[in-house]
Amino acid sequence: MCELFGFSGRKPESLNGQLREFFSHSEDNPHGFGLMYGGKLYKEAAKANDSKSLPKFISSLPPQKVMLAHIRFATVGSVKTENCHPFMGSDITGREWTLIHNGTIYSGSRLVNGIYRQKGDTDSERLFIYIIDRLNKAQQAAPLCAAERFEIIDDIIVKLSPRNKLNLIIYDGELMYVHKNMRGTLSYRQTGSGVIFSTKALDDGGWRDVPLAKMVAFKDGEKVFEGTSHGAVFEPALSRITENDAMNI
Q1: Does residue 238 fall inside a structural domain?
Q2: Cβ–Cβ contacts within 10 Å for residue 242, how many?
Q3: Domain for residue 133, yes or no?
Q4: How do residues 132-179 score in pLDDT, each as one tens digit?
Q5: Pairs from 36-40 (Cβ < 8 Å, separation ≥ 24)
Q6: Given this model, what pLDDT does residue 237 score?
Q7: In the β-sheet with 176-179, what is the strand arrangement from edge to edge?
Q8: Confidence check: pLDDT of 180 > 50
């Protein structure tokens, strides 16, 4: 199972220690890694623990206000750089979007068009292309405001969550969207200047579960939007159950 890492803060914060711990989990996720920092991408189709450049990169990384990171266990798509997360691209307004995904899209006919346009061959990249397409369609006349962008992403998540593994973090240059529909697979804790997310706890700092089957969005480390409690919790048998006690951050 892939692992996700995200940070949203009101000011830059050093994340070097958390990143070292996060990437140490690559023994179980050996098929690539990547980071988004300061609007840039750094990716390798190699086990993070075997990378000769990653330790030096982390040591030299300055404090960050926003960051996404990913370690990959390949389920769909071959082992190559094009299939490493994060995925990044612009909508028609020039807004940069970034996505990391932990899961598998089993039921995704909406994503078929992405097969002919993606650089790699993962379902995660097809999901990213579909999101950009939906945003572009909605912005033919004028750019969307933050609340409108959230409404579209929430609608996508609600419709795709049944029968799919859909843990993900998305960043649009302003908002960080966080969603999980698998139990025990994404946690968060407050830091000195914001909030950090990780598939597994990275220290002893009082981690709590991210809400189950409901998307939330953050800006500058503060929660600003909550989505629909859709109840589509992924189970090993691909069953859909109703989750009435989704936790709130």
Answers
A1: no
A2: 10
A3: yes
A4: 999 999 999 999 999 999 999 999 999 999 999 999 999 999 999 999
A5: 36/66, 36/67, 36/68, 36/69, 36/86, 36/88, 36/98, 36/171, 37/61, 37/64, 37/67, 38/64, 39/96, 39/173
A6: 63
A7: 87-90, 96-102, 167-171, 176-179, 216-219, 222-226
A8: yes
Full domain range(s) for residue 139: 3-226
| Distance in angstroms (rounded) separating the CA atoms of residues 7 and 172 | 13
The pLDDT tens digits of the residues spanning 24-58 come to 999 999 999 999 999 999 999 999 999 999 999 99
Q: 5, 178 in Cβ contact below 8 A?
A: no
Mean pLDDT of the chain: 91
Beta bridge partners of 171: 98, 176
Query: What is the structure's pLDDT at 243?
Result: 38
- Cis peptide, bond prior to residue 62, ω within 30 of zero: no
What is the count of structural domains for the chain? Answer: 1
More confident residue, 1 or 218: 218
Whether residue 197 is contained in a domain is answered as: yes
Domain assignment of residue 248, yes or no: no
Which residues, in sequence order, are CB contacts of 93 under 8 Å at separation 6+? 139, 143, 144
pTM of the model: 0.93
The CATH number that applies at residue 172 is: 3.60.20.10
